[in-house]
Design brief:
The chain is α/β, with parallel strands linked by helices. The protein has a single domain, classed as Toll/interleukin-1 receptor homology (TIR) domain (Rossmann fold). 43% of the residues lie in helices and 14% in strands. The protein contains six helices and five strands, in the order βαβαβαββααα. Strands 2-1-3-4-5 form a five-stranded parallel sheet, with helices on both faces. α1 crosses α5, α1 packs across α6 and α4 crosses α5. The longest helix is centred in the C-terminal third of the chain and has 21 residues. The chain is globular and about 45 Å long.
């Protein structure tokens, strides 16, 4: 299990994309390595097996369970986030000594809202961010800082850096001859790593 790997469990949808990128940036800025199901596109690997492999490798997990509204097409909510949170907590509970070192951050937009749809995790320290990207970054950064021995900026400072990075992203895409909609998780990760190394 890698001590810097952070499993990101969140919605992969257009309306969440800015928040997903904010989490990835915050994880990188604190010296950790973001991992998620988007990191590899291998049609030969079962998605469940891929998620289990990534969870097994990660000491830390960030889980945003905020997307509970029904899908426009199906009329049903998506259950992937609570399911993957359960896998992560299960690995911690029933895994070997290494898996028991896992630490978990659970996020939602409002405090205690989760009790209405996921009451079995009552007692967990759920962090609320009110749907605000800057607040989301603060929660992630301030949580991860406790696991680092480096001198790191606080969440508000990193949120300000993300705002600047976001304005630089179109130019980074242009230099790489990528359209913004073509940017993959790995592209975004590379842009953020390079920007942080030269700017932050």
């Amino acid at each position: 299990m890698q001590k810097t790997d952070v499993f990101i469990n969140c919605p992969f949808s257009a309306d969440y994309d800015e928040r997903f990128r904010a989490i990835v940036f915050a994880v990188l800025r604190t010296g950790f390595d973001p991992r998620c199901a988007r990191e590899a596109d291998d049609a030969g690997e079962n998605r469940y097996e891929k998620i289990c492999r990534i969870i097994e490798a990660c000491q830390y997990g960030i889980h945003d369970i905020s997307k509970t509204e029904p899908d426009v097409t199906s009329g049903l909510p998506r259950f992937n986030m609570p399911f993957e949170l359960g896998l992560f907590l299960g690995a911690n509970k029933f895994g070997g000594a290494e898996q028991k070192k896992k630490a978990t951050l659970v996020l939602d937009v409002q405090p205690y809202r989760y009790q209405q749809f996921l009451s079995d995790i009552a007692g967990q320290d759920i962090r609320a961010y009110e749907g605000n990207v800057a607040s989301l970054i603060e929660q992630v950064v301030n949580w991860l800082r406790q696991f680092s021995s480096d001198r790191l900026p606080g969440g508000r400072a990193v949120a300000e850096e993300f705002t600047v990075f976001r304005t630089n992203l179109p130019e980074l895409c242009r230099i790489s001859r990528l359209e913004p909609e073509e940017v993959t998780f790995l592209d975004f990760r590379r842009f953020a790593v390079e920007w942080i190394a030269h700017t932050a």
